[in-house]
Amino acid sequence: MMVLTAPYGIAMCQNESCCKSQTREPSVNQIIRIGMDTSKHFFQLHGVDTAERPVLRGKLRRKEMAGFFAKLPPTEIGMEACGAAHYWGRVLRELGHTVKLIAPQHVKPYIKRNKNDGRMPREYAKR
Fold first, then answer.
1. Backbone angles phi, psi at 14, to 5 degrees
2. φ, ψ at 64 (rounded to 5°)
3. DSSP state letter for 73
4. Where are the domains of the chain?
5. Using one digit for the tens of pLDDT, what is the confidence trace for 82-126?
6. What is the chain's mean pLDDT, rounded?
7. Which residues contact 75 (CB under 8 A, 6 or more apart)?
8. Cα(87)–Cα(116) distance, rounded to whole angstroms?
9. In 10 A of CB 104, how many CB atoms?
10. Are strands 10-12 and 76-80 parallel, antiparallel or unpaired?
């Protein structure tokens, strides 16, 4: 008796015709990196996709943060190091995200052209 096995990457369907198995690539709009600016009441977010295009720009309240990041797949999150950043870094790591804290003296080069929390530059999310 001869047993048919499918080559690697091909799965046998029920009617014994061959179909290619689909491998998942990151979606074009999938957020791969988020830059976060912390404050007392609101957090500014800036996320980019695999092509480094901005796909997320928004403001969240403190109590909305954990729920928002719990729904996201694991993402790299960069923020300026401060007391609040260390706390939120621990919370986000528990949710499966990778957190990178940037020393304040290294954040200064990213602040260009009268930046404020609402106008976060794209480069801030790259580190």
1. -65, -35
2. -90, -10
3. P
4. 33-126
5. 888 999 999 999 999 999 999 988 877 666 655 555 554 444 444
6. 75
7. 31, 32, 33, 34, 47, 97, 98
8. 23
9. 9
10. unpaired
pLDDT at residue 39 in the model: 82
Q: For residue 42, which amino acid is it?
A: F
Residues ≥6 apart with Cβ < 8 Å to 36: 43, 44, 45, 46, 77, 78, 79, 88
pTM, entire model: 0.63
Interatomic CA distance for residues 75 and 68, integer angstroms: 12
**CATH number belonging to domain 33-126:** 3.30.420.140
Identify the H or E element spanning 106: helix 104-107
d(CA 57, CA 54): 7
